[in-house]
Amino acid sequence: xxxxxxxxxxxxxxxxxxxxxxxxxxxxxxxxxxxxxxxxxxxxxxxxxxxxxxxxxxxxxxxxxxxxxxxxxxxxxxxxxxxxxxxxxxxxxxxxxxxxxxxxxxxxxxxxxxxxxxxxxxxxxxxxxxxxxxxxxxxxxxxxxxxxxxxxxxxxxxxxxxxxxxxxxxxxxxxxxxxxxxxxxxxxxxxxxxxxxxxxxxxxxxxxxxxxxxxxxxxxxxxxxxxxxxxxxxxxxxxxxxxxxxxxxxxxxxxxxxxxxxxxxxxxxxxxxxxxxxxxxxxxxxxxxxxxxxxxxxxxxxxxxxxxxxxxxxxxxxxxxxxxxxxxxxxxxxxxxxxxxxxxxxxxxxxxxxxxxxxxxxxxxxxxxxxxxxxxxxxxxxxxxxxxxxxxxxxxxxxxxxxxxxxxxxxxxxxxxxxxxxxxxxxxxxxxxxxxxxxxxxxxxxxxxxxxxxxxxxxxxxxxxxxxxxxxxxxxxxxxxxxxxxxxxxxxxxxxxxxxxxxxxxxxxxxxxxxxxxxxxxxxxxxxxxx
Length: 531
Ligand code: GLN
Description:
alpha/beta; Rossmann fold; 2 domains; seven-stranded parallel sheet
């Protein structure tokens, strides 16, 4: 039977709970335990697909097409596993399932209530994911902050889970904030005390506390947290600010958190092997070749809205001794070439709708004309086709997403998308096979003919224009198995002009950078620093 580790958060959101959860998973995995991770999001949306990335961060896409919270991206990157849509539970999903049961008559005669019906649903869901994945340990992260109305049913469910599974099978880790008051420089424990009090009022006593703080906690502060929060002092850990998120597991490992966790779960302890990870962290920190990459997008003010792309940069840069600095360019305000004066490479990420599209096209044109390494993703791929159609083929063309009545719809809606009216979960989603053409840049990077990459789109290159585009020199080096959908494009003779209909960033891992990102960073390094 699997064991469970439940991670809650106190004081405020954005503490990096997802990174702590992923780090704990990695440390346990390094001891040979098999791990899965569940993220609970206490909002009423059934999934993250309909949520604005500007408010909530990126929508991460899984192999099975699940559109999920970005923390699942962190779990996949740290743990090197593939999760499924069921690993993200939202209030919307839990309630929908209960209401469907009620309509079916499953509860006939009963009054359907949050306790026990919704809480049973949540527990059942957690257990099913854990058992189905066949793992030793299932880590469950509860989003939001303890004390929110929204998270109550989930906290109640995990309280019951501990009661039913037993103390040695369910462990509670609470992450909090220990701020430092500037004037006196003192680490303050009161917010932690209050959030633990809140948790205990619900019936949950944390076994371990992980305190986020600008600096490591001093012993006196640890003692105070221990005393007031009823946690042994050796179970209070610090997670100070670090330069790179991949250091967090190493910081926790140094404090012997793994031993504490395994003791609590009555599981045998062994030394872990983190050598490869340590080497990767060193490489990400010590890159000697700075690169300035311009990201031309719409949600540029929130780094989290492109988190997988930023991580993919790091994975590739680590292999190539590079250090990436990203300059955000708001596509809508893109003025002209002067914005790219210090740019070594340009990335145009995925996106939706008209706003900023012309600015993105201008950036692509600049990259193509000036031999600047360019990577286009999804919408960036589609706009690269529009750019080529306009400036090389001389067509007055567009994507119908931006202009429905364009005389040349060079990018158009997928046939199976035409009749769809519902927005949630209806795009072409998830991993689909792509056939890579031998002898191309893409083939040189993937080194195989058949790849599986993740998609999230409604539009595609209009098959009627493919011959014309190829006739004018554009190469479609990746094509879907149906031979109709274009998946990768590239421009021979250019240092690196590559774009993909799929999102390579979702499958990039530390130690295993996404090939198209690797090629992109490599081209930028070579252009700037020579071979
Ligand atoms: N808006 C485009 C489409 O729906 C691209 C989507 C994306 O970039 N993820 O096809």
